[in-house]
Each structure stands twice: as C-alpha cells, then as structure tokens.
Design a protein that fits this description.
The protein has a single domain, classed as Nucleotidyltransferase, domain 5 (2-Layer Sandwich). The chain is built from 8 helices and 6 strands; from the N terminus they run ββββαααβαβαααα. The chain has helices at residues 75-81, 88-93, 97-114, 127-141, 157-165, 170-176, 189-207, 212-215, and strands at 20-29, 39-49, 55-57, 61-64, 119-124, 149-156. With 219 residues, it is an alpha/beta fold. 39% of the residues lie in helices and 19% in strands. Strands 1, 2, 3, 4, 5 and 6 form a 6-stranded mixed beta sheet that branches.
C-alpha cells in the first residue's frame, strides 16, 4: 500500500495578519508638515517568513527623492538629517516623487501578492508620521491606485518597544534587543528602516507563539 505524502509548504504572511503584509517604512523629510514640506527619502522593507516560520526582513526598496515643486525646505530639519537636496551627487541619483513611488509600490505589490495579502500595512517608529508623508505624496502624485498601504492602520514599533523594553527611542530599543545600532548612520531612511525591521521581527519572534505547524497545509 502506498503511503500518503504530505508536502510542507512555507507559510505566507497573508495567513497571519488578517491579510495584511507588514512593510517597515521610514521617510526623511525637510520638516514636519506633510502637506508643505519636502519628502526627500523613503525606504520600505516587507516582513516575511523564512523557511523555519520565523519573521525576517525581506528585500529593501529605497529612493532619494527630489523636492516637489514649491516644497518647503526647513534648514533646521535639513541640518538634523544631514541632507543637502541640491548636492550634485544626490541630484544625479534622485528621482521625482511619482517615479519613486510607482517603482516602490510595484515592488511591494509583487510581494503582497506572493504573500497572499490584500493590503500592506505600514510599520514604523512613530508610524503615523511616516504614513502622513506617504499619504501626502500619494495625493500629489495621483498614485492612489498603485498604493498598496492601508489608509490609516499602522503597526508602531514605539508602542511595541515600550511594552517590550520600556524604551521608545529606536536606538535604545535596538540596544535592549541586542541589535547593533550605529548612531552615525541614523537619519538615513534605509538604515533606520533596516534597524526598525530587525527590531520589529525580534519583537514578533519573541512574543508570537510558533505557528509554523498550524500554517502548513496539505496539497
């Protein structure tokens, strides 16, 4: 008699967060007003499972962005993040908002479909700040139809870090989690997104019961 063979299938994120794909996002901006101040940099990293059912950061997507026409550039904010929007080297590799967003949204939507998710949900350290600038940029660029993100729901690592470690600052939270953090690299959207993704995965893997067996399905 032939024995039945069960094929293990790697779980997908769509089975975990009610169809949401967590995507860690960080933006660097020329101020605090999403409607008037320039969006200068954005990075996004989707969160997926590895073959062991552990949460891990996926592929990073990153863009330097040229200020939109008429954008306000607050000098104190530029000095704080260490960005000169008109540096020739930066200008040479920067994109306009619409080009950058469409490219990143396309990549995130591909992961979203692979992970059997209906929407992406923004994960951030002070997530509503990042979501506000993202929503304003989507409105300016008429990319609503390409935008994969939920319009108002977020996962905030400030709250998670406060519960887990009693810390709210990203650098201190990472240190508490045993994650290396280089303060000299901070305020780069890509670096901060990478560290936030590592922190988010660390917290999820510590707090979430191992669900791999329940997510495996028979053919």
């Amino acid at each position: 008699m032939e024995k039945s063979v069960t094929t293990e299938v790697q779980p997908v994120i769509g089975q975990r967060f009610r169809g949401f794909l967590p995507v860690v996002v960080d933006v660097e901006t020329a101020g605090f007003n999403a409607d008037t101040d320039a969006l200068l940099e954005i990075a996004c990293i989707p969160i997926v499972y590895d073959e062991h059912g552990t949460f891990v950061p996926g592929q990073a997507h990153h863009a330097h962005i040229n200020p939109f026409p008429g954008a306000n550039l607050d000098r104190r904010s530029l000095d704080f993040i260490g960005v000169d929007p008109f540096n020739p080297m930066r200008v040479a590799m920067a994109e306009d908002e619409k080009t950058a967003l469409k490219r990143i949204f396309k990549a995130i939507n591909e992961v979203r479909k692979q992970q059997q998710c209906t929407h992406a949900i923004l994960v951030g350290h002070n997530a509503h700040f990042d979501l506000g600038f993202l929503r304003a940029a989507v409105l300016r660029t008429a990319t609503k139809n390409q935008n994969p993100f939920h319009s108002f729901s977020v996962f905030d690592t400030v709250t998670l870090s406060a519960v887990m470690f009693g810390q709210t600052v990203l650098a201190k939270s990472c240190i508490q989690a045993g994650i290396e953090f280089n303060g000299k690299e901070a305020h780069s959207a890509l670096y901060d997104t990478q560290k936030t993704a590592e922190l988010f995965c660390h917290i999820l893997n510590k707090l979430t019961p191992h669900v791999l067996d329940t997510l495996m399905v028979d053919p």
